Each structure stands twice: as structure tokens, then as C-alpha cells.
């Protein structure tokens, strides 16, 4: 499969996405100090055994699988179990469903201090950045015509199918909406309205010079577009099968 992509977000504005990782901590009573706690490092690891449970963003699944192999080779008594989902859903597993994990790796580090600290996490570290791109293949309609200047015009063609992940579950989804909102301002076209607002129950309004986008918890789509899945990597199979022409993805997934 020949993968192609257009760095849409980079063209519109420098959108740099922080990727965060934290270690799951048992809920505790908040103290008066905000000083991050440094984890205890064991020096005698020869007899370590058991499981390491990892909740992760779908876009981080492949690199974490590679780390899993290295880790398990070094610690043969330990099995790393990785469970991918949208980043928001990963947080909900811990905060709302009371599921335990040892590590949680997200595609939006801001979810950690906002929803998990101080009751579920004591510290986190941002370790990578990414970009939003418009991903397509040689099977996609108008693949030979799309470029950095006309991409939104291609998406508006009636025979083209495009998609993004559910903003309620996955940061890639709400970043796709951000890209379309910025594109509307840049090109002076109602791109967000034509591609999303008129086709779903997602709403947007300008407040004090800022564009506010509202995504209902029960997301509804009124037409064939946009195609929405829980996490962005779920759209890859549709692209490969030719059932979808274009999808908003992270650059790390597209390359």
C-alpha cells in the first residue's frame, strides 16, 4: 500500500502536539505540596516477575509494542500487556471505571493534570511531539490532484469520503476539528461548517474572538460524511480497503 499525506496542520499553523506518559498511582488524599514525586527505582531486578498493564493511545501502540519486546527480553519474568484506545477513553478507564494500570501513555498530556491529578497520578513527563496530517492512499479519489492548497476543496466533492476519530474519545478527533476551524479562518471559507457542522450535531460559535467547538456526548452524523471511529488508527483499515478516501491522522501513524 502506497501511503501519502499532506501536512495540513503544519500548513495552517504550527500545531505541535505534546505526548505524555504517566504512571498510574493508587488514589490518595491531596496534600498541600505540588512537588512531583520521584518513583523508587529498584536496584535488584533479577527476580522481578508479573504483569505490567499499559493503557495507551492507539497512535502509540506500535512504538510501545517495540518497547515491550525490549523490556520483556531484559526482564523475562515480566509480561507487558498493552491495551490501546483513544486517549480520553484511556483516562476514563481509570477515573470512571476504576480499572488499574501501571502505565498510561496518552496523545494529549494535558489530560493528565486536568483529569488524573492528584487523585490518580502524582507525576508525568512529556516525551514526544507530533503533527496532524491528512492521510490518503493511491486508491483515494483525486489522489493525483490533491495538494496543500486545494485539500479542503477535494474533501467537499460529493463522491469523496473522509473521516476523523471521535473527539469524545480521542485527541486526534478534536485536533482535526481544530485544524478545520483554523482552515476556515485562513482560507476565508466556511470549511468547518461545510465538512462537519452541517453534517453532525457538533456545534461551534465565536466567543470574544475565539472559536468554541462543542461536541455532544452522544455524537450524531446525518450523512455519509464524516466517517467517525473511536480512535484515529481505526480509520487506517478503511483507507487500506478503499472504503475511505481521506482521514485526519497523526504524522507518526502516516509515515
Give a brief outline of the structure.
With 255 residues, this protein is an alpha/beta fold. It has nine helices and twelve strands. Helices cover 29% and strands 26% of the residues.
Short descriptors:
D-Maltodextrin-Binding Protein, domain 2, 5-stranded mixed sheet, 2 domains, alpha/beta, 255 residues
Q: What does this protein look like?
A:
The structure is a single chain. The chain has 255 residues and is of the alpha/beta class. It folds into two domains: 17-26 and 50-129, Periplasmic binding protein-like II (D-Maltodextrin-Binding Protein, domain 2, 3-Layer(aba) Sandwich); 133-254, Periplasmic binding protein-like II (D-Maltodextrin-Binding Protein, domain 2, 3-Layer(aba) Sandwich), CATH 3.40.190. It has helices spanning 8-12, 61-74, 87-95, 111-116, 151-155, 171-187, 191-197, 234-241, 251-254; strands spanning 3-6, 17-23, 50-57, 78-85, 103-106, 124-130, 132-137, 162-165, 203-207, 210-214, 227-229, 246-250. The longest helix is centred in the last third of the chain and has 17 residues, at 171-187. The termini are close together. Mean pLDDT is 83; it is low at 9-41.
Amino acid at each position: 500500500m502506497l501511503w501519502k499525506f499532506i501536512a495540513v496542520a503544519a500548513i495552517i499553523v504550527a500545531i505541535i502536539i505534546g505526548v505524555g506518559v504517566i504512571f498510574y498511582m493508587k488514589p490518595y488524599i491531596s496534600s498541600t505540596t505540588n512537588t512531583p514525586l520521584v518513583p523508587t527505582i529498584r536496584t535488584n531486578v533479577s527476580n522481578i516477575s508479573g504483569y505490567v498493564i499499559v493503557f495507551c493511545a492507539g497512535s502509540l501502540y506500535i512504538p510501545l509494542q517495540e518497547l515491550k519486546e525490549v523490556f520483556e527480553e531484559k526482564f523475562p519474568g515480566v509480561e507487558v500487556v498493552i491495551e490501546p484506545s483513544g486517549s480520553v477513553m484511556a483516562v476514563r478507564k481509570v477515573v470512571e471505571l476504576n480499572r488499574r494500570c501501571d502505565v498510561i501513555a496518552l496523545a494529549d498530556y494535558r489530560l493528565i493534570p486536568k483529569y488524573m491529578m492528584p487523585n490518580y497520578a502524582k507525576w508525568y513527563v512529556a516525551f514526544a511531539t507530533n503533527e496532524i496530517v491528512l492521510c490518503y492512499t493511491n486508491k483515494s479519489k483525486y489522489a493525483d490532484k490533491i495538494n496543500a492548497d486545494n485539500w479542503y476543496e477535494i474533501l467537499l466533492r460529493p463522491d469523496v469520503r473522509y473521516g476523523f476519530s471521535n473527539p469524545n474519545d480521542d485527541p486526534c478527533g478534536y485536533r482535526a476539528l481544530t485544524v478545520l476551524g483554523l482552515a476556515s479562518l485562513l482560507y476565508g471559507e466556511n470549511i468547518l461548517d461545510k465538512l462537519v457542522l452541517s453534517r453532525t450535531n457538533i456545534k461551534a460559535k465565536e466567543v470574544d474572538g475565539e472559536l468554541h467547538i462543542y461536541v455532544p456526548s452522544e455524537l450524531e452524523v446525518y450523512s455519509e460524511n464524516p466517517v467517525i471511529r473511536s480512535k484515529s488508527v481505526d480509520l487506517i483499515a478503511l483507507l487500506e480497503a478503499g472504503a475511505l478516501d481521506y482521514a485526519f491522522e497523526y504524522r507518526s501513524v502516516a509515515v
